[in-house]
Design a protein that fits this description.
The chain is α/β, with parallel strands linked by helices. The protein is built from 9 helices and 5 strands. It has a single domain (about 10-175), classed as 2-Layer Sandwich (Nucleotidyltransferase, domain 5), CATH 3.30.420.10. Helices cover about 45% and strands about 15% of the residues. The longest helix is centred in the middle third of the chain and has 26 residues, at about 90-115. The relative contact order is 0.20. Strands 3-2-1-4-5 form a 5-stranded mixed beta sheet. Endonuclease that specifically degrades the RNA of RNA-DNA hybrids.
């Protein structure tokens, strides 16, 4: 079965009303270790008049080998991309939705630091939960945030954010693998593989784990 390609249909309609569309998507939400990461990709009407980059899909539908190539091509297509991160400690402190909101805010601020007027954009957030608006209000005021179910699959701006976040977070988890080889983060990227769970049972939690998720009774060892 062929993968579904995202379109620019929604973005083109919105760009008749807004100067920019910002797509946002998260990775790492269900992981046991590592940060949550939110990508934000911004496009304008000139971008939307063109074609979706070859190979762009929801990052889950692109092979790990091809993702860096597609992410590089996509980064050259959009007007700008930024990433926001929330640490395992912030997941513990704020809960997963609060941490996602914090990461999304940091991504939006990253775009603003690149010179984009993010307050005047419409923000397309993958999923059915708006975890951005409340967190962003104090710093950015009221943003126009629209949740889009299956947006990472169907909407090109969100797909662009998805693949940028996935490639960056995967690279971080591979880097963290050194010194914590038992947990196999180079393969599972912090998610709950059998090897990862067995390593937690054998060695306990590290500082890179989300302690509040009660994934092992042992105290942190590192």
């Amino acid at each position: 079965m062929s993968a579904i390609s995202p379109t620019l249909e929604l973005e083109r309609r919105l760009l008749e009303e807004f100067p920019f569309v910002i797509g946002l998507d998260e990775v790492g939400r269900g992981a046991l270790a590592g940060p949550v990461t939110v990508g934000a990709s911004i496009i304008d009407a000139d971008v939307a008049r063109g074609e979706v980059p070859d190979g762009l899909r929801d990052s889950k539908l692109v092979s790990e080998k091809r993702r860096p190539e597609v992410a590089e091509r996509t980064a050259a297509w959009v007007r700008g991309t930024a990433l926001g991160w929330a640490t395992p400690g912030e997941v513990d402190e704020r809960g997963i939705l609060g941490a996602l909101g914090l990461a999304a805010l940091r991504a939006i601020i990253g775009l603003r630091e690149q010179g984009f007027p993010v307050e005047s954009a419409v923000h397309l957030l993958d999923g059915d939960r708006d975890y951005l608006s409340r967190v962003a209000f104090d710093q950015l005021g009221r943003l126009d945030v629209r949740t889009v179910v299956k947006g990472d699959r169907d909407r090109a701006a969100i797909s662009a954010a998805s693949i940028a976040a996935k490639v960056a977070r995967d690279a971080l988890m591979v880097g963290l693998h050194e010194g914590f080889e038992a947990y196999a983060w180079d393969r599972n990227k912090g998610y709950a593989s059998a090897a990862h769970r067995e390593a937690i049972r054998a060695h306990g939690l590290t500082a890179h784990h989300r302690q509040s998720w009660a994934i092992a009774p042992a105290p942190p060892l590192f």
